[in-house]
């Protein structure tokens, strides 16, 4: 029944929705695989905390599985993708994170049972990944308010002992009040533009901007990156941005900048910038060199989805 003879499953024990599976999620997931006809005795199933995902993935990949299944959110998927893009190993996803943006945009069922069934009945599709200074991402990367907010969110979670979403809301408010501004120059084959903005967003493929679809992508295999920024120099700009977004007028504003490319370099007077990569924040040396790697990752997505 199984199309793969060597399967490895890696589960993030600390992913966003794993607690919904009860006290023994590994057993629940193993049983779900068995119900779909998988011979779990011949599979390698490992559950580890989020901090050990990368080392566990490296260990599993030494066994050269044909399929590796990442059970977790976008951070878990990112760590596995960094190890298998440009290889023949196929990626399956069990969406157990808080948001699961890549899984949703790739046409992977969000229900656990359906996601496992998809590994049997789904189709293998080659999709794009993106890179900044040697770091691979599947969703997006940004400079400015968001990476600063993620850093502040972690501080608020620890300080106030509150949940991730509430801490992030407080962090965004606080960071917006600080009103960081970045002056950068973006250079690609088609553009050379200096931008002053509190945030510069780079997406793997085109992100939609309408109010009810923001953060969504129609395709993850178009072979391009998108860049978005909102030029502003005063504290009311974030409110102006939200107003335009709410009424679907953002793209008509002369302050909104969007550009599309395969490769771009972002220069800054700062030697290093805090950069978010699929939700995680690291400090990178400038210039930031973004590139698209079209169709270098194989995933299993639903056969019912339109071509993404």
Word description of this protein:
The protein has helices at 25-35, 53-61, 74-84, 101-105, 112-121, 145-160, 164-178, 237-246; strands at residues 7-12, 44-48, 67-72, 90-95, 123-132, 135-137, 140-144, 182-187, 192-197, 199-204, 225-230, 256-261, 263-268, 272-277, 280-285, 288-301. By secondary structure, the protein is α+β, with helices and mostly antiparallel strands. It has two domains: 7-121, Probable inorganic polyphosphate/atp-NAD kinase, domain 1 (Rossmann fold, 3-Layer(aba) Sandwich); 137-294, Sandwich (Tumour Suppressor Smad4), CATH 2.60.200.40. Strands 1, 2, 3, 4, 5, 6, 8, 9, 13 and 16 form a ten-stranded mixed beta sheet that branches. A six-stranded antiparallel beta sheet has the order 12-11-10-7-14-15, covered by helices on one side. α2 (53-61) runs parallel beside α3 (74-84) and α6 (145-160) crosses α7 (164-178). The mean pLDDT is 90.
Contiguous runs where pLDDT drops below 50 for at least 5 residues: none
Shape: globular
In percent, how much strand structure appears in the residues? 25-35%
Biggest sheet statistics: 10 strands, mixed
Helix content: 25-40%
Tally of alpha and pi helices: 8
CATH topology of the largest domain: Tumour Suppressor Smad4
Mean pLDDT: 90
Let me know the number of strands: 16
